[in-house]
Specification:
Helix content is 39%, strand content 23%. It is α/β, with parallel strands linked by helices. It has a five-stranded mixed sheet, sandwiched between helices. Strands 10-7-11 form a three-stranded antiparallel sheet, with helices on one face. Strands 1-2 form a two-stranded antiparallel ribbon. Helix 5 links the parallel strand 3 and strand 4. The chain starts with a helix and ends with a helix.
Length: 296
């Protein structure tokens, strides 16, 4: 068996081709070193050095071992470095799930952070609905998810950490009578035609908007239900207004106005979560929270 000390002794003698010099490098006396090399040769079954009173040379077999052993040391050091980098979250693989609304701001921030500070982490992206991402995360098909958290959907094996909170605003056509307003009071929305969110594809937004309408005691007239960005296209076409996250203003800035909702108590705020399995020890995940919590 090739022990690390024996390998180090062989390599040092092979590099120095002088037992005295090699012994000094290894901080040992020469006789024990010579005995160690002889035992090594006996174990391998062939001479590794040709010794004379004036010189030490590698045998052909010794030259082969020298070349292979040096590569073994290099590979071993690389393996240790790779292991440490993985343990520190600087390398490895990560599969990130995300909802469409997470892609407006947080996903670009997360990807840019990994690219800048952890370029050796391989990233795989999967876009889906929040409810589907929760299932995928629980089933170990993704490692991390940026998602909304519907009240009706939960999972005891997952940890949800809020990483973003933003206000809701009212999306209206540019030619709407309210388009000139700087902001809009909730009561002005009562009875107006509205594009709502689909329960199947946007459960979180549907739940939140129903809660917001109930809090402000307003009852818009829901004429259609959809998801973004289709929902914004319907608003631009004049079919109705919509209550959307402020970050959605980056999608169709030209044909629409986005009016902040007058909401002093911040009742209409919406949250975005970063979710993971509670017992997942993948070090690459830790970097995500550091990136997302960075306000720069």
């Amino acid at each position: 068996m090739l022990h690390s000390r024996t390998l180090e002794a062989f390599l040092t003698v092979a590099e120095e081709l002088h037992f005295g010099n090699a012994a000094r490098r290894l901080h040992v006396s020469q006789p024990p070193l010579s005995q160690q090399i002889r035992r090594f040769e006996q174990e391998i079954g062939t001479p590794l050095f040709t010794r004379t009173t004036r010189s030490v040379k590698l045998t052909p077999a010794g030259a082969v071992l020298f070349k292979k052993a040096k590569q073994l040391v290099v590979d071993g050091q690389a393996a240790i470095l790779a292991t440490r980098r993985c343990a520190e979250g600087d390398s490895g693989q990560l599969t990130i799930g995300f909802t469409s609304t997470a892609a407006y701001q947080l996903l670009p921030k997360l990807l840019a952070g990994y690219h800048a500070h952890h370029p050796d982490i391989g990233l795989t992206l999967k876009e889906d609905l929040s409810t589907n991402l929760i299932t995928m995360l629980a089933e170990d098909r993704i490692d991390l998810a940026l998602l909304r958290r519907p009240a009706a959907v939960s999972h005891e094996a997952l940890v949800f950490t809020r990483v973003s909170r933003e206000a809701m605003c009212v999306a209206i056509p540019g030619n709407h009578p309210y388009a000139a307003l700087a902001s809009i009071e909730p009561e002005k929305l009562h009875g107006l035609p509205f594009i709502g969110f689909s329960a199947d594809a946007a459960l979180y937004f549907r739940e939140r908007i129903q809660s917001i309408f109930a809090h402000f005691q307003i009852q818009p007239r829901i004429v259609h239900e959809s998801v973004m960005p289709t929902l914004l296209s319907l608003v631009e076409a004049g079919m109705g207004l919509a209550l959307v996250p402020a970050s959605a203003s980056s999608l169709r800035p030209g044909g629409l106005r986005y009016l902040p909702l007058v909401d002093e108590e911040n009742i209409a705020a919406i949250d975005l979560f970063c979710a993971q399995r509670w017992n997942d020890e993948n070090p690459a995940i830790k970097a995500a929270y550091s990136i997302l919590s960075n306000s720069d």
